[in-house]
Amino acid sequence: MPAAPSPVLPQAPPWYALGDFIARSALPDTDIKVIEQRRPGKIASLIAMHQAWITARLRKRGYQTAPPVQELCLLWLTRMVDPDAYRVRGVNAQSDDQIKRLDDLADAARSEVKEAASAVDNLFDLPLADTDTNASTTGVTQASPLGYSEQSPYAWQGIQQAALQGGGGTTGDVVNPFGTTDDTASPLVSGDDSADIEEGGL
């Protein structure tokens, strides 16, 4: 008896249709239509193949891979499909600069997908897959401000004064420039001092 065929898992819904690929692709519309006439369904199979690779990379990070997906994912998918579709049309790899450029773009797209799938700090702002199918939750961890200080605004003067006096430049007793250890003291004169200024002048 012949062996039973292996079960085939159902394919995920495509991220876009052929018409969307034509609108996004770097290939001329006429070339894509010629491919479809000669080999119907070929481009759809290329889309499904590369989409499955991207999905396998991103889904393990918890990113949204079911439609609708981010525009960036569609860009990666298109750039990965383009050179394969171009080769189906027919190309001279030795003299055609276009296929080299498409290959470079595809390689860059694969590298970015790998980076998005493995970066600890989520360098790409891709939405997470939520139980309510809401694609608005981002996978980026928003950092808080890193600057923090409790030093007095006069600390630098205390350090400088201690250094000049051979005290090692510590910030133990901070002396502000107005002759008091209270760093909230106002530089404005008051009381008898103001009277002395009025009588003696500046």
Give your account of this protein's structure.
The chain is mainly alpha-helical. The chain has two domains: 18-118; 155-200, no CATH class. Helix content is 47%, strand content 0%. It contains seven helices and no strands. The chain has helices at residues 18-24, 29-38, 42-59, 71-89, 97-118, 155-164, 192-200. It is elongated and about 90 Å long. It starts with 17 loop residues before the first helix and ends with a helix.
Strand content: under 5%
Name the overall outline: elongated
Structure class: mainly alpha
Instruction: Assign a percent range to the helix content.
Output: 40-55%
Gap between N and C termini, in Å?
Answer: 114 Å
Low-confidence stretches: 131-135, 183-190
How large, in whole angstroms, is the Cα Rg? Answer: 34 Å
Order of helices and strands: HHHHHHH
